[in-house]
Amino acid sequence: MEINEFIKMFSLQFDETDESEIKAETEFRQLDEWSSLIGLAVMTSIRKKCGVELDINDFKSVSTVSELFELVNSKQKS
Amino acid sequence: MYNPFTLEGKTILVTGASAGIGREIAIDCSKMGACIYAVGRNAERLNETISQMDGIDHKSLVCDLTSRQDVNALVSELPKLDGVVHCAGIGQRIPCMLLDETDIDEVMDINFKAPVLLQTEIMAQKKLNKGASIVIISSIASWSPTIGNSIYSASKGALISYAKCLGLELAPKQIRVNCISPAMVWTDLAKKDGINEETLKADEERYPLKRYGRPADIAHLAIYLLSDASTWMTNSNIEITGGGKLS
Question: B95 lies in which domain range?
Fold first, then answer.
């Protein structure tokens, strides 16, 4: 999956936040709409679309969308 | 010694006996004198359970409870039972918005359909002694919502509804059916639930008794329900919660 596709998948989990507000360098936990439910939705989408089961501690270790993308990529390769 | 909770002379089937609450129930019931038929998917972990039991006549039975063939074969190997503990189950955390049919089937097949069809087969093959006790492990999740837990909660609620009808149908034979609904218990299922341990520890502090349950807390209640101490108890759903979840 390319980064742009990943960002699109990520943005789909939001209702109020415009897609244009979410970029590779966005610190997603700082977004007004961010919640634990959206976090769970992101983790579920990653599992279903990328086939990667993220550990909650791994997920907490990243803060931007691109870091999350890299994390998923590294898990896909390992 | 006066002991109304003894399980001496009773033969008890326990599913989900290779880990967590099921394992503890199997081990503790053996210590109360029962002969245990321990069912699980993993032979190695089941043998670990057996190795921690008191007594020598226990059996481990590897079975995929979602397979009709496996279940029929399993039940035909069983002697007459005085107790059944339906404990096998899995967790799941998926927001409602992202659920698909596979997610629903995965949880309902294991948590609901499997115990129901195992129970059906046990009755069809007439493997229950008069006065037997059926214990079904449900959860307060049936009424206490947490995000992403919809299908797990629904599966546990479905078990409670099923148990009440089963209890009514088996009452003429003095066979009792009761559910145990624990709040959070420290097991691998809880630890792998997609919530980090710090959050769980903070949540634990909100319990009036300041801790989550231990598998033994649930096993001791199961012993009561399986013993003759509870012969007037059927169609109940007992909540065991460390004082109730305050939220």
Answer: 11-240
